[in-house]
Amino acid sequence: MIASPAPRTGGQILIDALRIHGIDTVFCVPGESYLAALDALAGAADAIRTITCRHEGGASYMAEAYGKLTGKPAVVMVTRGPGACNASVGVHTAFQDSTPMLVLIGQVARDFEYREAFQEIDYHTFYAPLCKWVAQVESAERLPELVSQALHRACSGRPGPVALALPEDMLTDTVRVADAATYQRVQPGVEPGAIDRMRALLTSAKRPLVIAGGSGWSQSACDDLRRFVEANNLPTGAAFRNQDRLDNHHANYIGPFGVGASAAIGALIGEADLVIAIGARLGEATTQGYTLLVPPRTRQQLVHVHPDPSEPGRVYQADVPICASVENFLREAAAMPPVDHSAWTKWSAGARAAYLEDLEPTEGLPGDLDMGAVMAHLRECLPANAILTTDAGNFSTWMHRHYQYVDYPTQLGPTNGSMGYGVPAAIAARLVHPHRPVVAFVGDGGMLMTGQEIATALHHGIDPVILVINNNMYGTIRMHQERAYPERVHATSLSNPHFADWARTFGAHGERVTRTDEFAPAFERASNAGKVAVIELCIDPEVISTRTTLSAVREKAKRH
Ligand SMILES: Cc1ncc(C[n+]2csc(CCOP(=O)(O)OP(=O)(O)O)c2C)c(N)n1
Ligand SMILES: [Mg+2]
Q1: pLDDT (tens digit per residue) in 440-474
Q2: Cα(140) to centroid of ligand 2, in Å?
Q3: CA 232 to CA 252: how far, in whole Å?
Q4: Which atom of ligand 1 is nearest to the CA of 444?
Q5: Three-class SS of residue 343?
């Protein structure tokens, strides 16, 4: 006879399940709704580290960045209504960025449900459009099953966030139940004949182009991508904020699509006769508002590879839709006999030359602090494995256009354009890789959305370097405002703290840079500070992007 499992509380069963599934990090803001789970976490400190954050938005962004970086889910654990509301921004990011994540939410006790009890929310409804799956665990006996199901769903196919609501009294119930086994990630393979169909399109193409991105990548997938594009001499661009799939120094890399992309790469896709999209969803940012590729039937022939069967064919009717993980697809694509690519030798070289030309900073931008020179310095001094994180805003175009990524994974950015991501992502990155340089790019707007998480960094001894690119405004929106309503500036200017002083009051290292020559020594001091460091970069507000000035945007809009 099998011995009956020992009695455990729901909280203990939950944390035991996390341990069994290999969850090693929980980002949280505590709440009285899940004290029993916290207590069990205290007893699991040998296997699971708990990072206490200052806002659930910061916690969920950290969990998202952890998932993006490792391919494994982290847990974000939050309390009832207010905690779940605050956490939602990182959950939305994980959904649009296809990042695995487990959201654990405290819930009112079962006998209070449906009374609009204190902080009660129906998570099935609230989190439904943000998550792959939402469940409420109504009995402690079902915790092993439902945690396993949640992680299976988060990681298989197109990854994404899943949420479990945990009634408070369920977590304190004591029951006897056996644990589940460790979940296994299930990934679709390539249908027989699909590679042949892609090869046939390539054989008759004259100007093919690859777009690589999305989630589910690994070092071996990146190696296979390099083999595939090298063997067939395919110009390869990066989907929005997915610039680290192919070494940017490689002759086949032709630059990023998305915000701040060059006109040249837009023109190239216009001229292409075949697009092979690998892993990317081909979203609004990558396609410049669905103009570079026009749905439903693109003028270019299209091979679309994605791990979710509903994706290739959903927005764009691909000529060859392939449902496969990038790893499974690229393993086969790399082994495909190469085609004769002599028809596009010039096209491929031209695409690379256009990328290299765009890497050179635009001349004549005003101000004492030259961001082009800052980026050139970072390119020179950071090693191939340095991780760069970004917030959302126009300052991010500096790293999109002027940084060259080498290793995978080294770029963490919200492809849903969510402000507040940069600092929490940098904290998660430096937590996972304490010996790799981690540099965050944040605007003055984004910094005061989640910048208080530097307190979390200090508390847990995590020490990324954070660059705050300060133009005293919500610059992106000001740019759009000047375009659409020239000179009618409203609600976009900001008054800011002295960011270096502000950082120092937390106990962080603070630097303020107003001239180009001050940057290199400040960056060196910040990198060696031994604690989280904030460098404020005071740029000329006229410099609204890597390419143009606010006045030029306004004058152009007035002429039209
Ligand atoms: C959470 C969130 N709120 C609002 C926006 C809309 N938005 C996009 S960029 C931007 C301004 C960003 O300002 P800042 O961080 O200072 O960067 P800048 O554009 O000035 O370089 C805003 C408000 C957003 N993307 N995300
Ligand atoms: Mg700004």
Answers
A1: 999 999 999 999 999 999 999 999 999 999 999 99
A2: 48
A3: 10
A4: 16
A5: helix
Which pLDDT score, from 0 to 100, does residue 423 have? 99
Residue 57, Cβ neighbours under 10 Å: how many?
A: 28
Angle between helices 10-20 and 35-42 (to 10 degrees): 50
pTM (two decimals) = 0.98
Task: Give me the torsion for CA of 454, 457, 463, 468, rounded to 10°.
Answer: -20
Question: How long, in residues, is the chain?
Answer: 560
Q: Which H or E element spans position 135?
A: strand 133-136
Q: Is the dihedral of CA 499, 505, 509, 515 positive or negative?
A: positive
Predicted local confidence at residue 1, as pLDDT? 58
Name the residue at shortest CA distance from atom 8 of ligand 1.
393
Q: Which residues line ligand 1 (CB under 6 A)?
A: 391-395, 417-420, 443-446, 469, 471, 473-477
CA of 444 to the centre of ligand 1 (A): 9
* Whole-number Å distance between alpha carbons of 112 and 121: 12
How many C-beta neighbours within 10 Å does residue 135 have? 18
Q: Residue 62: which H helix or E strand, with range? A: helix 56-70
* C-alpha count within 13 angstroms, C-beta hemisphere, residue 280: 30
Asked whether residue 274 carries a pLDDT value surpassing 90, the answer given is yes
Which residues lie near ion ligand 2 (Cβ < 5 Å)? 443-445, 471, 475
Residues 169-226: tens digit of each pLDDT: 999 999 999 999 999 999 999 999 999 999 999 999 999 999 999 999 999 999 999 9
Query: pLDDT grade, residue 2 (50/70/90)?
Result: low
Evaluate whether 143 touches 10 at the Cβ level (below 8 Å): yes
- Protein residue closest via CA to atom 16 of ligand 1: 445
CA distance 222 to 407: 9
